[in-house]
């Protein structure tokens, strides 16, 4: 039996414990009592975790960015209003029950042995763990970029993504804007974390930690504070995305935007604007 299949089945055995999907009609009550209860429990856990991360990290980030160090980090008028922040919280809160469905369904697929996820690093060894991690993240980066870019096309934008792009100025975005999406929009951008499990072996706990880390990362990239940490796509890059729309679609890194010609660095944008101002001044003279 191939090693990956063995590892995937081992993971499903560890996670599934006593639950097995039955295909016979008489087993429907078993599914409803055992599997449905397990799914509901998993969903509730993910929902609570999502809320705890969103409100905990968002509140801490907001306090330090706006109250503790706001006078040092922002100019007058650059801090978002309470009304903007409250609107972002409401949109995010409405979406969180649906956001929690993705890790719930993913975990169920892993329990059933349908993915290549594995339970222990020892199952594959440290070297292959690191190799699979890199391959997994490359797939996630590539497909998050394209999911995001598709959401800027046609009905993807007009029906879904436009809700998030209400916050298109630096003084409108806040750490609480990070999950302020239409629920389907947020799920679409997270889907690569789930579907990559079906063709790249991945340590399951690492997968779950990465999935929930995105809620921390998205808090960071909406705080409008630029740090020069290229090739990491920080808040400076994402602010440009909100202002110019058609650039900087990437997730954690800049390489996919660079590959497809949609990257603008904060320094490049500032140089472009300086050149435009100089040209306008020269024309006015």
From TrEMBL:
Species, as recorded: Chlorella variabilis (Green alga)
Taxon lineage: Eukaryota, Viridiplantae, Chlorophyta, core chlorophytes, Trebouxiophyceae
GO biological-process terms attached to the record: lipid biosynthetic process
UniProt entry keywords in alphabetical sequence: Membrane, Transmembrane, Transmembrane helix
Any GO MF annotation of the entry: oxidoreductase activity
Pfam families for the chain: FA_hydroxylase
Fatty acid hydroxylase domain sequence ranges: 133-262
Protein name per its UniProtKB record: Fatty acid hydroxylase domain-containing protein
Entry-linked InterPro entries: Fatty_acid_hydroxylase, Sterol_Desaturase_Related
